[in-house]
Amino acid sequence: MKYIIKTYTQIDSAIWNLLAAQICLQLINSAFFLILNLYMHKNNYSDASIANYMSWRYSAVVFFAVPFGIYIRNRPLLPIMWTTTLLLPFVSFALLWSIEQHWSLAIVLSTAVWGVVFSLSNIPIVPYILRNTHISLQSQAIALSASVWSASQIAAGAIIAILSYINPILFSEKHLLQIFCGIGLFALYFLWKMNGKETMPEKINIDKQSTNQQNYNWKLITQISLPTLFIAVGAGMAIPFMNLFFYHTFGIDSAYFSFLGLITSIIVTISALFAPLLKQKWGFHAIIWTQLLSIVCMAAIAGSELIKNWHGAVYIAIIAYILRQPLMHLSNPLATEMGMQYVGSHNREITSAITSSIWAGSWFFSSQIFSWLRAANLPYSTIFSITVLLYLFAIGVYFLLVKQFYQRQQNTATI
Questions:
Q1: Has residue 19 got a pLDDT over 70?
Q2: Residues of 313-348 as b/e, b for ≥16 C-beta within 10 angstroms?
Q3: HSE (side-chain half, CA atoms, 13 Å) at 122
Q4: pLDDT tens digits, residue range 64-101?
């Protein structure tokens, strides 16, 4: 344990400040994830309309992410981080106002802009880490970055639970969301503390007549993006609507769901730090086993609705929910690191952008599908079962990719 902690302390202060800034922005995202759906529900929005509006968060990202990934290749990343960090809190305030006013066009526009800005704030993170972190510490830095979301969930869940307990009328969902939008502005301070520190990658000597598309290895990029597509589509039909599932199935409101999020995120944050240790012991094969266990938990959540009248069903759902997320997130830094190594250094920015685009596009279509299925009164168990099936496809692809990854390493070593 002391060895693990020691390796993290060796990471450069600029990376720590970057991650602190990322946490401030993720607090907005975490608060939206935990209680925005419930805030809309209490403002007389139906499940179907909530899903429809929230799907626009992901739609616009599809068109911006890949061109953005091409643009940032061999360019400074910090100016982009400053811009997105400044914009995100103000767009968040605009979204909350449009929801309160029940102004449909404003909700769609502000949700779409929010999705683009938030996505563009995240795309440069891993490329920046790989540019500015020694290779011996890259696994640790990526693991820390992967744990930022869960750490923000801990903070957001704790703040929501405590303030809701103190005064649920004063600290309504609306006021809580506004508080987190304000907290997001503190990210500017941590970016300022980085003192503009950034290492630029070496430029490749290429023919000026060659195009960007010819400089990318699209075969490798497509291979590493395929399992992400399956996972993203499946997750988009389940993860954003877990709070609605627990609310409708077991009557768990925002305060209690935030407490569940707090417990889950503590486990996620701690477990993510052990990703380098899993890699050291089992290599990238750990991706497959952690995701398999996560699927078992997802199946248990789906099955709990079928037995919801049994008093033990809610406990099965809660335990499975708490365990599913850490297991899936434990594989994320490993999958990210393997993916970046798999595609090579000159394909990293575009791969990061495509990954963001896949998640956004998949969640857009998945949200639309969820909206249609719920409008047709299909139970959550059926929808979540589709998620389980898609996750299984993703694991099958990862199995082949891990095998191919080590085969390529072995071939390289023998040359």
A1: yes
A2: bbebbbebbbbbbbbbbbbbbbbbbbbbbbbeebbb
A3: 27
A4: 777 877 787 777 888 888 999 999 999 999 999 999 88
pTM: 0.70
Quick one: what percent of the chain has pLDDT higher than 90?
26
Please write down the HEC assignment for all residues of the chain: CHHHHHHHHCCCHHHHHHHHHHHHHHHHHHHHHHHHHHHHHCCCCCHHHHHHHHHHHHHHHHHHHHHHHHHCCCCCCHHHHHHHHHHHHHHHHHHHHHHHHCCHHHHHHHHHHHHHHHHHHHCCHHHHHHHHCCHHHHHHHHHHHHHHHHHHHHHHHHHHHHHHHHCCCCCCHHHHHHHHHHHHHHHHHHHHHCCCCCCCCCCCCCCCCCCCHHHCCHHHHHHHHHHHHHHHHHHHCCHHHHHHHHHHHHCCCHHHHHHHHHHHHHHHHHHHCCHHHHHHHHHHHHHHHHHHHHHHHHHHHHHHHHCCCCCCHHHHHHHHHHHHHHHHHHHHHHHHHHHHHHHCHHHHHHHHHHHHHHHHHHHHHHHHHHHHHHHCCCCHHHHHHHHHHHHHHHHHHHHHHHHHHHHHHHHHHHC
Is 159:56 a contact under the CB 8 Å cutoff? no
pLDDT at res. 209? 40
Give the Å distances, CA to CA, from 403 to 223, 227, 358.
13, 14, 24
Half-sphere exposure of 101 (CA within 13 A, CB side): 13
Residue 399 pLDDT > 90: yes
What gap in Å lies between CA 34 and CA 20, rounded to an integer? 20
Query: What angle do helix axes 380-414 and 313-343 make, rounded to 10 degrees?
Result: 30
* Gap between the Cα atoms of 298 and 276, Å rounded: 25
CA distance 118 to 122: 7
Number of residues that this document lists for the chain:
415
pLDDT digits (tens, 9 = 90+) for 252-295: 887 788 778 778 878 887 877 777 788 888 888 889 999 999 99
Distance CA 20, CA 37 (A): 26
